[in-house]
Specification:
Layout: H1 8-16, H2 22-32, H3 57-68, H4 71-77, H5 85-100, E1 103-112, E2 116-127, E3 130-143, E4 155-156, H6 164-173, E5 192-205, E6 223-229, E7 240-243, E8 254-256, E9 261-262, H7 263-274, E10 281-289, E11 292-302, H8 306-318
Parallel strand pairs: 3-5, 5-6, 6-11
Antiparallel strand pairs: 1-2, 2-3, 3-4, 7-9, 7-10, 8-11, 10-11
Helix pairs in contact: 2-3, 2-5
Length: about 325
């Protein structure tokens, strides 16, 4: 069993429990949560960016002002059409960069000719007199662990579409090189001084897994949760739970009691879900704190055959 002296949820609640708006809470998590990867790990070659150990008091005061009057903030996010989680997270953090006065461009597409898209700069940022290129990713991976090691490719996406290793390979070797492409030069106000990746997210471990010596460059304090098959999930029948929709995956949940259900009710719902859909479901376990139910733990509940399919998928990627 993997454990920490204080959970990611407890750390978040200690600083941000006063925030009520879910989108402001999501932004606070992006700014303050530990990085997924360790910027100092030698295997990343200095290509991992970081916002620092936590956002400062000025940013905290700004978040509190947003929380008190979030209407304009919501409008900038464009919440009318539900975006993909990655785009949603990008919009959140773009708001922060703009407020800081460092944002030069966000989502800038590079084209060669009229129809050929070469790539896209997630963020161009100003640092003093220099120009930075940051790629930004918010990822959620489960340690599949059917093999003998814990390489980055053993961390697989819940839908089995990618792995941590494959994602970082794409970012480091393709996306961060965009500024060197001849077609990109006309889009840049000046040469890029440094290209790095900012990576946030959560990693999920089965209760019988032990994290061995970290030799794949994970941040020691990265946010983590559990995963287990539906038949393995043994939460108490009356445990307050919440099924997390995709845009709720970032910050720990804080909801009214009427939004919760019991673990028994959720088991019934998940059994019906897995009867026709193999996509794992992220759930939060909650505790009553003064009338609000706040997240104390989170995990992916997966179909009973997910472990076998994940192992087969990883072997296909290797071969």
């Amino acid at each position: 069993m993997i454990s920490l002296t204080e959970s990611s949820q407890a750390l978040f609640a200690r600083r941000w429990s006063h925030l009520q708006d879910p989108h402001v809470r999501a932004l606070a998590w992006l700014l303050d949560a530990p990085d997924l990867l360790d910027p100092a790990a030698p295997q990343w070659g200095g290509l991992i960016a970081s916002l620092g150990p936590h956002c400062g008091e000025q940013a905290a005061e700004w978040l509190s002002r947003l929380d008190a009057a979030p209407t304009e903030f919501h409008a900038r996010l464009g919440l009318g059409a539900t975006p993909r989680l990655g785009r949603y997270a990008e919009k959140l953090i773009a708001t922060y960069f703009a407020q800081q006065g460092t944002l030069v461009a966000h989502g800038l597409q590079v084209q060669a000719g009229k129809s050929a898209t070469i790539g896209e700069f997630d963020f161009l940022l100003r640092e003093g007199a220099t120009l930075l290129h940051w790629e930004f990713a918010t990822k959620f991976y489960l340690l599949e662990g059917s093999g003998a090691g814990q390489a980055a490719d053993y961390f697989v996406g819940p839908n089995l579409a990618d792995t941590l290793g494959a994602k970082m390979g794409k970012i480091l070797h393709r996306q961060l090189a965009l500024g060197q492409h001849p077609a990109a030069q006309t889009y840049l106000p000046q040469p890029i001084s440094r290209a790095q990746a900012l990576v946030k997210g959560w990693l999920f471990y089965h209760p019988d897994q032990t994290l061995l010596d970290n030799d794949i460059g994970l941040h020691p304090q990265h946010c983590r949760g559990f995963w287990c098959a539906l038949d393995e999930w043994h939460a108490a029948a009356d445990q307050a739970c919440l099924r997390l929709e995709r845009l709720d995956w970032l910050a720990p949940a804080s909801v009214q009691s009427e939004q919760c259900c019991t673990a028994d009710q959720l088991r019934t719902e998940l059994a019906a879900h897995f009867a026709h859909d193999s996509m794992p479901v992220l759930v939060a376990l909650l505790a009553d704190r003064g009338g609000k139910h706040i997240e104390i733990e989170r995990g992916f509940i997966v179909p009973n055959d997910w472990r076998e399919r994940a192992g087969q998928r990883r072997l296909q990627q290797i071969n």
